[in-house]
UniProtKB/TrEMBL annotation:
Organism for this UniProt entry: Micromonospora sonneratiae
Keyword annotations from UniProtKB, A to Z: Kinase, Transferase
Family matches, as InterPro entries: PfkB_dom, Ribo/fructo_kinase, Ribokinase-like
Gene3D superfamilies from the UniProt entry: 3.40.1190.20
Name recorded for this polypeptide: PfkB family carbohydrate kinase
Start and end residues of each Carbohydrate kinase PfkB domain: 9-292
Amino acid sequence: MVTGDRQLDVAFVGRANVDITVRVPSRAVPGRTVFASSPAAIAAGGKSLNQAIAAACAGARVGLVGNAGADSWGHLVVEALQAAQVDTSLFSLVPSASTGAAIIEIGPDGENCIVLALSPETELTPEQVSARLGHLRAGVVVTQFDLQPDTVDAVLRYQQADVRIGNLVPHPGVGRAGLAGLDLYVVNEQEAAAILGCHHGDPMDAARDLRKFGVRAAVVTAGSRGAAYSSPDETALVPAKQVSAVDTSGAGDVFLGVLATQLAQRAPLSHAMVRAVEAGSVAVQYPGPRPPAAILSETTLGGERRHVSP
């Protein structure tokens, strides 16, 4: 548990799990078996973990508020966080609990299908969030909005952050009204369509409409097209470089981790978006949910790293 006050640039609140990834020559169909083209890869993953590691590679002092089971997979998660210099004093291993797992299927085009098996015993409670954030000062807090409503409320009650960022489709119990407590809301095109009730051909239109729910600024990622943002000052699309995608899983998390870091460093949203899109374009060129740390660090920092104090 956290002791004393800790100062971080970005705190991420959400899930960590293991990723079990297979590459397949084609999608499975009912009644037929598809053989993976390579052995399954098992690695630490989860949206908040991926975002936290990306932010750490981008130079931020980062912590992850989350849980995993006290099993071999949970220890793998902690090791991955520590290797990336993410502060793990906010992260707990729950005794006798299993760590969640994501089964990721990567097709020949680099696109992914993901099935997430949650571990109910490791889901964050509002009491855990309040206790851990209560001993923390962070310029930016990023939370997954699909957490339980009381847990999301506990994050939104945290007043120390200058910027509060939400991600993913809100839990039904949170609803769209919960977006009004955010400074920035980040989703992909499919998530935006689920929230708005229709698909927008132009991600800029989707970002504009998301702001109608009270969020100060909204970002809609659009894959190979880049990402759009809408704020009180402007609405624009930041195009992505055209690259050959190897694996798109986790690219959105790299994008958000770098975006949060840039905002913690007081960069304007327009500048932060450019750096985040660049990082996302790098991410899709490597297998797995995260590009090699050295590559991401080189992209975002020019090879320089800032270390998190133990």
